[in-house]
Amino acid sequence: MATPTLQVALDLLEIDRAVEIAEEAVRGGADWIEAGTPLIKSEGMQAVRTLRKAFPGHEIVADMKVADTGAVEVEMAAKSGAGIVCILADADDTVIAEAVRSARKYGVRIMADLINVQDPVSRSRELEALGVDYINAHVGIDQQMIGGSSLDLLRRLAGEVSIPIAVAGGLDAETASEAVAAGALIVIVGGNIVKAADVTGAARRVREAIDRPEIRPREEESPDATIRRLLEAVSAPNVTDAMHRKGAMTGIVSICGRVKAVGRAVTVRTIAGDWAKPVEAINAAVPGDVLVISNDGGTHIAPWGELATHSARNRGIVGIVIDGAVRDVDDIREMGFPVFARGTAPNAGEPKGFGEINTEILCCGQEVRPGDWIVADESGVVVIPRERAYEIARRAMEVKKTEERIREEIRRGKTLSEVTELLKWEKRH
């Protein structure tokens, strides 16, 4: 391999979509085509056979993640048309040895996937001694969501083995380039190619990047900055999807229509339109925060209005969420400031000072704690537990990518039911 190899991972469920996407990826410069584990589990060895027939001039990789019966599973993949079979690096040595023997018999090669291996350097040396052809420095998607990095794993392996090293796990054009500069000979890209609306363009960007590898200096970004950047790029529906349909408030709407607020929660508990604590909370907030106000759900009297909104905006607060009513709606709409409430009412209460600031509250059916993350847009308001914010932000971005590809296929003429093969995937009872 004089030049780096680009392997596109088809981690899809539908073989027809996989072939279509693979064709577009090949036009963008993909070399090897991987029948991803989800595709194999969904379609069986027919996935490998179909890809072999559709792409006679390309290497077909079967990501079997073999953990047992190494000889049988390698034989299955080889006879179906795979040239490379992926096994789990942490499988027992007897499984590895049998897989290698079967590969030699059927003229295919073995790639060992280091996903979840505790001592990857030592294990890679052992795998090389057992006859494995490639090592895959792979951090799985669920590990990526909490900060795992395939590039970090790759750097640990550089120079430790003499067989080619592949790298997989959340790579895009920029990180793929860095991976080649760090020693990878095979770059495996999944979601950032196959979920793109323009698959050919995405593959071409990766192809061009790995053909001119470089390590770019990176500016350090704080965890909060990363979370905010990711959440600002996704929608409230993306976030609830990432949380398995959880976290959404009920009965609340955007007062100013198409606006968005993303930030950490400063919580307020008040009663019956008492606006003292909501206004005092402005001083407790820092730029980028969202005020979340529990007003016991009453909508007949407002704890918030235009003057408070103006004050909050000056403070750098990015949004207001009220389990209750808001008034001075015309002035707030003129400001275009993100205010979300259960309703409107012209009546104002009295600043009596009942309640608390920065305590756990219940707001529109959701528990909110100080420091939890809020994503609010015209679709509604979602609460993300602070300890899972980075993970959920990453998962929401993956949801958005998936939707981008589906949207493109609908634009080309398919219905949503056809794209997702609803009848096939309806739950059986």
From TrEMBL:
Keywords: Carbohydrate metabolism, Lyase
Enzyme Commission (EC) number: 4.1.2.43
GO molecular function: 3-dehydro-L-gulonate-6-phosphate decarboxylase activity; hexulose-6-phosphate synthase activity; orotidine-5'-phosphate decarboxylase activity
SMART domains named among the record's database cross-references: OMPdecase
Gene3D superfamilies for the chain: Aldolase class I (3.20.20.70), Ribonuclease E inhibitor RraA/RraA-like (3.50.30.40)
Residues in Orotidine 5'-phosphate decarboxylase domain copies: 5-206
Keyword Acyltransferase found: no
Main EC class the enzyme belongs to: lyase
Family from the record: Belongs to the HPS/KGPDC family. HPS subfamily.
Matches recorded under PANTHER family: 3-KETO-L-GULONATE-6-PHOSPHATE DECARBOXYLASE SGBH-RELATED
Protein name (Swiss-Prot/TrEMBL): 3-hexulose-6-phosphate synthase
Species whose genome carries this gene: Methanoculleus bourgensis (strain ATCC 43281 / DSM 3045 / OCM 15 / MS2) (Methanogenium bourgense)
Origin organism lineage: Archaea, Methanobacteriati, Methanobacteriota, Stenosarchaea group, Methanomicrobia
